[in-house]
Design brief:
Blueprint: E1 3-14, E2 17-21, E3 27-31, E4 44-50, H1 53-71
Antiparallel strand pairs: 1-2, 1-4, 2-3
Amino acid sequence: MSVSSFTVDLDRIEEGIAVLLAPGGFQWHLPAENLPEGSREGQTFQVTLETDESETWARIKRIGELQERLEKR
């Protein structure tokens, strides 16, 4: 399992969409409902990304099965 962490700042929330400022000047837009309860503009968040090997393989298998079905058409 691989893990990476970094910080983002909550710039604003517009029409239910949170705009997070990430390192390198990138922006992430995600539904504000995904933020922790009580989040507000100006707060800094720690973001942790973690690989999920079992889910990755399950999706690869599912996609392979779909491709096989489509090729048989």
